[in-house]
Amino acid sequence: MLMRTDPFRELDRIAQQLTGVPGTWSKPSAMPMDAYREGEEYVIALDLPGVAKDAIDIDVERNMLTVKAERRPAATGDHVQMELAERPLGAFSRQLVLADTLDTERIQADYDAGVLTLRIPIAERAKPRKIAIGGESAPRQIGT
């Protein structure tokens, strides 16, 4: 089992609560991601809990896939007094360079239960294929 610890996380959280400003140790919020091959396509799953479907933007330019999302506050209004705010708000983005072997023209996107799933087919030109050997050659005659 692999465990990752961040000794400054609790200190940063307390500093942010007291000052309202992210501390020097805070990391930019990212979209946790899994990527794997399933049959003839690659699947990318990004965690975006609390993000509305209409606040997600997906672009592909050449081989660069960009996912942008915005998490807005759930509680707003004049009579709302926030007591604890640990969930990051604001705009997030993630960029991935896609291999030439993927068909970026046929990407499918689904969003369910806070998970954005992108399915990218493998391009036909990248799939393995058999090469036929053509023609019969006559036996070569060596000097008479």
Automatic annotation (TrEMBL):
Record-linked InterPro entries: A-crystallin/Hsp20_dom, HSP20-like_chaperone, Small_HSP
Entries under SUPFAM superfamilies matching the protein: HSP20-like chaperones
Superkingdom of source: Bacteria
UniProt feature coiled coil, ranges: none
PROSITE patterns: SHSP
Sequence ranges assigned to domain SHSP in this UniProt record: 24-136
A Pfam entry, by short name: HSP20
Family indicated by similarity: Belongs to the small heat shock protein (HSP20) family.
Annotated protein name in UniProt: Hsp20/alpha crystallin family protein
Organism: Streptomyces atroolivaceus
